[in-house]
Amino acid sequence: MSQNGHQHTLVALVQDRPGVLTRVASMFRRRGYNIASLAVGKSEQLGLSRMTVVVNGDEDTVSQVTKQLDKLIEVIHVSNISNEETVVRELALIKVSSATANRGEIIQIVNLFRANIVDVGSQSMVIEITGEEDKIQALYNLLEPFGILEMLRTGRIAMVRGQSDGRVSDSIGIDLYGAGNGHGEIRAV
Amino acid sequence: MEPTGPLTGAEIVCESLLKEGVDVLFGLPGGAVLPLYGALAKYPQLRHILVRHEQGASMAADGYARATGKVGVCVATSGPGATNLVTGIAGAMMDSVPMVAITGQVPRPAIGRDAFQETDVTGITLPITKHSYLVMDVADVAPAIKEAFHIARTGRPGPVLVDIPRDVLAADKTEFIWPEQVDLPGYNPPSFAHPALVSQAAELINQAEKPVIITGHGVLTSQASPELLEFAEKTQIPVVSTLLGISSFPTGHILDLGMAGMHGMAHAILAIDQADLLISLGMRFDDRVTGSLKDFAPNAKIVHVDIDPSELGKNKKADAAVAGDLKCVLQQLIPQVTPNVHIDWLRHIESLKGEHPPIQIRETEELLPQHVLRELSEATKGDSIIVTGVGQHQMWAAQFCAFQEPNTLITSGGHGSMGFEVPAAIGAKLGRPEKTVWSVAGDGGFQMTMCDLATAVENNIDVKFAILNNGSLGMVYQLQDLFFDKDYFATVYTGNPDFVKLAEAYGITGIRVNEQSQVADAIQQAMEVPGPVIIDFVVKEIDNVYPMIPSGQSAKQMLEESTPKRIDY
Q: What is the pLDDT of residues B499-536, one digit of tens each?
């Protein structure tokens, strides 16, 4: 899975403005960080989006990625939630080749995975599956012998369990800056 | 005077600049930005300096900003105007200089259609700006400019680009509403550091037996020189400087060890090598400072203070990583550190100075660039502003010149731009008219931006241009000498102009110096002549810059010997 070190999941709250995604992507490219996936969509707050970024790298790299992300003006907050209790999901659409003869077998597999068939044609079916990446991969592996015509994946989205709003403090109990907020006030969280 | 009645987008830009306290801007007009020029004509409070090339505008804005601590402003049109700003913007980003660049863009309906002089300048400058705006609505002009100045000057300073389409500049009259405050929920630069981290740093400082302070540009940008002096004197810790930290601590102070890095003082480099604690203030462990990172300060714990949290741990892991504004953090630290004499350590450093004497000039009849810089330092007594580009002349200026006051060495550090010295000196002089400003150039760099001599002449900007003319790209020549089998390819200039005649062509004084004995008089004469002057110091015998730690190596591989060479050009 990861090329060096581990996969880390970062969740960023960002302003929903033109160019934000470009800034994030440009920062990753420029600094040579390796994104495994990036998913973005509206958040519960008007004008703000939430981004889930999966990064490969060791602790130091991911700490840098987190700080570089947080440095972008339109990024309001970044949390590394890799060590938290989280709900992790990804959605995939898999179009599999299917003739009448093997349709039943495919339906059985789909049911086993609690996935859905969302389109059936004479020679193909589209299967929708939601879950963690390895579940999707497992379904993919089982469908592969039938012939996969196309697959689309959203990339991981992740949420910290419990009442947290997703903000995670670092080990010494202060936030990323370990500093005031520009007005001389200490911002311990 | 508050504006009465509604304004065009361009007039709103001008009013916004006045609100931000702008008094001078550097630029060159073109089609897309013309509505702004139409408005500027009606705002004589905004002094527009017409450059000859937009690179000069961004570099002059940079020089102005470094000399004054204020935000430098440059203006260009779309397309080539905007792309010509790029080198100067990149330099401001690398050296954390507050700058606002305003560019005209093609009209909104033409964007994305590859219109004449359309360039995606916010895209091009994305990685070399702290932030940027493409203003698509006239109502957003004032907030964008207010935010741009706020972002440029606060936290770790940097350049912000504001791209405004022509039809937004020319937009129908709108009410000018200056926002009370900026709305930037994702931007909260730190000021005071967390007390727990400050205490951690203070503890390491109080325990150290062989501590060294290393200063960077952050000391200057946070105006922390008085606190640095107090801190160093209270703790009696010697101060080494990076190239961009020069002038944050007075040259010649008993605790001043001078510059570290690739061409730093041997005793400063060895002090870092042997230190048990390195207190890194507003510097970023740049490779030209550290060489091999793992061999840099190998015996030292690190206290790292920086306003940009992403610098902490980026290149070198710190034992105490403190995010905060240096001025604030030093104020927090000073009461917590105990006075200490470190007598054995300071004596040891004195003995290092004895074994590796600070920079000397070898005996020769020839005129060397080092003679010029030594005389310049003598003549200006550390009271002038010295502006350099990149290369040998820059290193010798850093080694030989004395600086007593913050921001008196202005140099292209991280980006290392040749040609910076000409426009940046023009900007610096406009910002600090009471100071003598010397543009110290090589003949290579000078020829990159000498078109802006016209800018100095036109506006009677009194910059003294000292060209250390060795008919070559000296630093590249040095690298070929040391590391490319003395294969001096493409580094010798055989077609240089006569710089004295060039001065005459611009209607200013030109002086040629061939002999050591003429140096002091020429410098004196240049300072007595009002207005810009060019001195062409003709250097025939060239040295390499020493000491030198070859790229990626450590104090152990420091070269100190010099062999003179002659260049025929």
A: 999 999 999 999 999 999 999 999 999 999 999 999 99
- A54, A157, B343 from A162: Cα distances, Å: 21, 16, 57
- B154 to chain A, any CB pair closer than 8 A? The answer is yes
> Whose CA is closest to B409, among B442, B373, B382, B446?
B382
B120 touches chain A (CB under 8 A): no
Q: Is the peptide bond before B547 cis (omega within 30 degrees of 0)?
A: yes
Q: How many domains does chain A have?
A: 2
pLDDT tens-digit series, residues B403-412:
999 999 999 9
Residue type, A116: N
Burial category of A123 from C-beta neighbours within 10 Å (exposed 0-12, middle 13-18, buried 19 and up): exposed
Inter-chain touch A22–B322, beta carbons under 8 Å: no
Asked if the structure places residue A179 within a domain, the reply is: no
Q: Of the candidates A84, A113, A146, which is a domain's last residue?
A: A84
- So what's the ipTM on this one? 0.90
Asked whether the CA dihedral B476, B479, B483, B489 is positive or negative, the reply is: positive
Residue B361 included in any domain: no
pLDDT band at A186 (very low <50, low <70, confident <90, very high): very low
Query: Which DSSP string do the residues of B328-358 spell out, in sequence order?
Result: HHHHHHGGGSPP---HHHHHHHHHHHHHS-S
Contact A73 B185 (CB under 8 A): no
Same domain? A100 vs A63: no
Q: Give the neighbor-by-neighbor strand order of the sheet with A6-15.
A: A34-42, A48-57, A6-15, A75-80
- Residue A173 scores a pLDDT above 80: no
Q: What is the mean pLDDT of residues A69-75?
A: 96
Indicate whether B290 and B154 sit together in one domain: no
- DSSP H/E element including B447: helix B443-449
The answer to whether A53 and A10 have CB atoms below 8 angstroms apart is yes
From B309, B324, B355, the end of a domain falls on B355
Q: Is residue B188 a part of any domain in this protein?
A: no
Q: Which residue range forms the structural domain that includes residue B433?
A: 369-549+558-566
Whether B224 and B318 share a structural domain: yes
Q: Where are the beta strands (DSSP E) in A58-143?
A: 75-80, 86-97, 116-120, 124-131
> What's the CATH code of the domain at B308?
3.40.50.1220
Collapsed DSSP state (helix, strand, coil) of residue B535: strand
Full domain range(s) for residue A113: 87-157
Residue A72, Cβ density class (10 Å: 0-12 exposed, 13-18 middle, ≥19 buried): buried
Interface with A, mutate which of B94, B187, B325 (most A CBs under 10 A): B187
Q: Is residue A122 in a domain?
A: yes
Sign of CA dihedral A152, A157, A161, A165: negative
H-helix or E-strand spanning residue B133: strand B131-134
Answer yes or no: do B381 and B529 share one domain: yes
B350 & B375 share domain: no
Q: Which of A23, A31, A61, A67 to mutate to test the interface with B (most CBs of B within 10 A)?
A: A67
Q: Are B149 and B252 members of one domain?
A: no
